[in-house]
Amino acid sequence: PIGPDWRRGCTDATAMDDDHPVKSVQCCPPEHTKIIDFELPRVQKIRHRPAAHLVDCNYVYKFELAMERMKALPDDDPRSFKQQAKIHCAYCNEAYFQTRPPRDGPDQKLRIHFSWLFFPFHRMYLYFYERILGDLIGDPDFVMPFWNWDSPCGMAMPEIYADPCSVLYDKLRNDDHRPPNLVDLNDGLDANELKKQGIIFDNLSKTDQIRSNLCLMYRQMVSNGNKPTSFHGKKYRAGCRSALDDECKPEPGGGTIENGAHIAVHKFVGSKRSPDSPYNEDMGNFYSAGRDPLFYAHHANVDRMWNIWRTLPGKDRRDFRDRDWLNSSFLFYDEKKNLVRAKVRQFLDIEKLGYDYQKVDIPWLESKP
Ligand code: C2O
């Protein structure tokens, strides 16, 4: 199973522009030698992550206070906003080696995108992030919000992130895409096929944009995401004997949501290219995406999609049972600054982790193209 080789340390990461390396970035966490195994929390009640466009003023106050405290931590504190942002960069941009292959197979760096690691890695990342935020305000029940981009009223950037005076704001975003502009969940991949079905994309009116987004959601979640590999992404294993083996290459291929709505939202939020943002920082490039507070709300909705997907009918709509997947592991600092090793198998059921999502309508379920 895949995991970072902590003993071999962390190296500089490589920022990419499309498929080309463009610069190296330092994304390593503070050093630490003792690793403890993650244990599931004792769950007394389920906490519900709210939709970001529906939260009230008390919630926003608490959330902003927590973010403010996270941003105020010293840079070398593993719980600080900067260090937390680097986690994404390190795991995405090859800062770690994979645990050494058992036979003398080729040495590999680790990447968590565009494979079956996508959903579980990001779920863990958010889980520890949320616990840190809760701890910083002394509220063990704290939950982070999700950006409900799969529903008409959630399709613009949530207002709470768009206020330039808020700690939730990030100036490296595309100004043309502030609210009330709606996100376009089509990232180009699906366009041709949809055109054939008579769904046109250019200069959409607001209602057409909503309809188009809902159809895309239906396709990504229902018609095309009907198998574990098509939804989660392709298999990615450690310890293959040959570099030619397809299942051990990094980024073998993402699933419908990762490739579709997920990427589309990253591109929608990230800045246009400029001297301050040559590579579409922050959200528009993986190495910098974690620097935008909106990243975590975006990924909470991605996480919610995984959770919804498991409840849709279809006998193949269930998680892998492959041991290589279940035992893949990643390291995170928890709210007490312990370095924790978490395994995919511990992160399949969100109720066991103590959270769920606010129930909101799921209009794309009725949006068969
Ligand atoms: Cu790790 Cu949305 O990317």
From TrEMBL:
Residue stretches in coiled coil: none
Protein name (database record): Uncharacterized protein
Lineage: Eukaryota, Viridiplantae, Streptophyta, Embryophyta, Tracheophyta
Parent-record interval covered: 89 to 457 of 621
